[in-house]
Specification:
mainly alpha, elongated, 23 helices, single chain, disordered N terminus
Amino acid sequence: MAVSLSVSRILSSVSLFLITLDIQINGLLGSQDVDQHLEMGKKLLAAGQLADALSHYHAAVDGDPSNYLTYFKRATVYLALGKSKSALPDLTKVLELKPDFSAARLQRGNVLLKQGKLVEAEADYRAVLEKDPDNQEAHEHLATIAPLHQQIEEAERLYEHLNYQGAIDMVTPAIEVSPWNPDLRELRADCYIAQGDLFKAVGDLRPTTKLRNDNTNAYHKLSKLHYEMGEADESLVQIRECLKLDPDHEECFKFYKKVKKLVKQMQSTQDLINEGRYEDCVNKASQMLKTEPSTFVYVHRAKSHICHCYSQAKNVDKAMQSCKEVLELDENNVDAVCDLAEAYISNDQFEEAINEYQRAQNLDGNSQRAQDGLNKAQKLEKQSKKRDYYKILGVRRNANKRAITQAYRKLAVKWHPDKYKGDEERKRAEKMFIDIAAAKEVLSDPEKRAKFDNGEDPLDPEAQQGQGPFWNQGFNPFGQGGFQFKFHFN
């Protein structure tokens, strides 16, 4: 019994000794590891590899949480990375561990001043001067705090009295001293919004998303500003950031649904234009107007699409109406002027088309579309005084192949030379029949019709100079031997 007790005591003593030895060894190794991390952090910091240096300082703090210098070094890296919010707790920890460390207190005062926490910053600067009355940096920063209070108060007063430019002039120097103060940036952003300068407002609001934790309001406001500026895609990006922070944010979710729908409609409209599906384009652009019936930039864009697509579809009446609506919104819209000119061309109003293209050139002297359109309209105007195949068949410029064939058949029956007996009547019928057959040949052939629509007569020998001796080979409906032929409708 006694032996057993003695053995138990010996084993307990050995176990206690081993545990104590293990703690001492681990402490020794831990200290070596901390030194290695600090040394690596120092080297990486000197090399400018801040993120890698920070990871070693993290490890050093974990290994020795009572070393104030380790916290101070990590705070220095945080500040170099622009992470003042992360640096501040480390500087505070340094002062808890070593309250008389003036370098850390001065650094904390600087961070607090930049964050706009003027009362706390003033306390730190005074504490530094109590220990070091000749500290020049502390004196200089302390001297800025009282005037800074006055500037901020005056800026707020001016804003309340709707003196937005005065408020901007007053708060801007304060932001230069306290660039990490989100309140000041939000105040100046509100002034810019009131002035209608949304671009500058965005520039002030964007940093506040990082300066204030979970700043859903800033993302919501940014999204609306980008939306008002016509930047729907960027608006969608910002509103999604709001929902990442708070998926249940009611205002952000409501606005997200609207912006997402509009962005999709805008993209679909552009795709339809690229594919030449102009009737579908009109329908999709009309949906854009239903989604956003009031914001100018989107109303203007939707109506511009409708004008363009009606013009390209050669729906003359609706093209003229919709293009004139666009020009009522924006009289300097070069594309709408050109679309209106093309509608005039489709309606054989060449002089009006020329006038519109010249107007487009006056608005934008570098517009290639206006220059090309003007050349085309002038050719067509000149061509209209000669032989107009559309007028010969009595069809509009947007007539399809079926309408052209029907018109040809009807006129061919009417002017078939075999129906006329007298020489004069027969000669007139022959001429009319040749013109009718020529019109059918040109307007039924996509390539020839395209040339004609661009002001060039593919059956005019003068217009075809240089294109070979057989430019109209096989056209003559009467063949080579006079007036004997068999009539076919094909």
